[in-house]
Amino acid sequence: MFSILNFVTFIREVDGAETSQMPATKLATFIVLVVSFIFIVLIQLVLLPFIKHRK
Asked: By the 8 A CB rule, do 10 and 26 touch?
């Protein structure tokens, strides 16, 4: 999913608001995507021991 979102972000010329995508905008989108991906992975790593302990 992460790779697909990155691919779509970097190949599109115009986003949903009909603004053209500059390299800086694409980089900002990539950074937001990476931060959200890291956030989700960290939450899963923190919750994994609690879920395994219950079973």
From this structure: yes
Q: What angle do CA 22, 35, 38 make, to 5 degrees?
A: 145
CA distances from 19 to 7, 15, 25, 31 (A): 18, 6, 10, 19
**pTM score, whole prediction:** 0.69
- In tens digits, the chain (55 residues) has pLDDT values of 888 888 887 888 777 777 777 888 888 888 998 999 999 999 999 988 888 776 6
